Amino acid sequence: MTETVHNDYEVSSEGAVRHWEIPYARLADVTPTPTNAAQVTGLLDGHQLTGTILTIDAGTSVAVIDFTASMVYRHDVRNVLTYAGAEATWGPINIGDPVYYDDGATMVAQFIQLSTSPAPTGGGANTLFGFVVPADPTDVFPKGAALIAGTYRCAVMQLGAGAA
Q: What global pTM score does this model have?
């Protein structure tokens, strides 16, 4: 049988774009802000759906979140590695480093939800949000240093929905 490419379907080089409306009540941060990271609450620590907030509608209390796998957004990332009641250790952030949606109650700034720590302050697991990638050819790495706390603007390729 001859293989043929049919012209009666659509294809895209970027893959499926996944934007969904999520009620504020289902988000880890119930006061969402556009451009921030978001986590949909779930049953198992470390296995929640995450994405980037595109828009909010305060009237209906829903946020439109981009859950597209491999989409890259710039986010503020805290370089904390471990907690011991409060932040205990820090390390430099480099290309390919995992970034987590941090459930830690001691996050330094109210709007920083992402860190390099796989575990929050109270134990359990933070959800893997994505990985650090270069924002452009001039992006400098590493960001930060060992033993020095800091927050850095990083390009993060999010896992989104549909990622294994």
A: 0.86
